[in-house]
Amino acid sequence: MSDLFQLPEFIDSRGKLTFVEEVTHLPFQIRAVYLLAKEEIPDKISLPSHAFMMAPVGNITVNSDTILHGINNGILTKPAEDIYLDKSSDSFLLILSEKTISHLTQLQIPFRARRAYFMTDIHKGKSRGNHAHLTTSQLIFSLQGAFEVELDNGTAKKSVRLTSPDFPVEAPIGVWHTLQKFTPDAVCMVFASDLFNPDDYISEYSEFLDIIKSSNLKND
Questions:
Q1: Fewest CB atoms within 10 A around its CB: which of 8, 118, 136, 212?
Q2: What is the pLDDT of residues 141-173, one digit of tens each?
Q3: Do 175 and 220 touch, CB atoms closer than 8 A?
């Protein structure tokens, strides 16, 4: 079994942000994503390709010697490796794989996910997001706790309260999005259609409105 892989993280006045990208951090392109709740996690998984595994919620013991816990770490597996799992009652298992795994059901994402990131320990009254993207779509999940996602296309706004991983919300290209009103135990997971690029961000709301008015940004 591979050693624990430490994910990069940023901590600021808002809370903690942890992320992982294909190629940048993983030695493969992400072609399939699996999110398994405790009752869906098998005792054994046979992986036909390189994969990255983590437990963003709960504890999972892998092959009796490696413990996955929280958003700070995971493991990289080898092709054709048999993985034995022992999970706690509240566990989630996330697998990012370079190939499909025939005996598991893929997570439905409306684009090919190239990056995943996680937000935790959000300080009371703080918000995340507060920007739009020029070329990137995102799918936002609540794995634990709850928070509100406000979507703004420049002419109309709508807010969605996320309380379950079964009902994610998409933040499409060109939509200003704000994540707020986090419960203390909230764990937010987001998949993005592109790698991190600071030039892809519109961080000033006035600039966002100007771009919308000039019809240089497509949104829904």
A1: 8
A2: 999 999 999 999 999 999 999 999 999 999 999
A3: yes
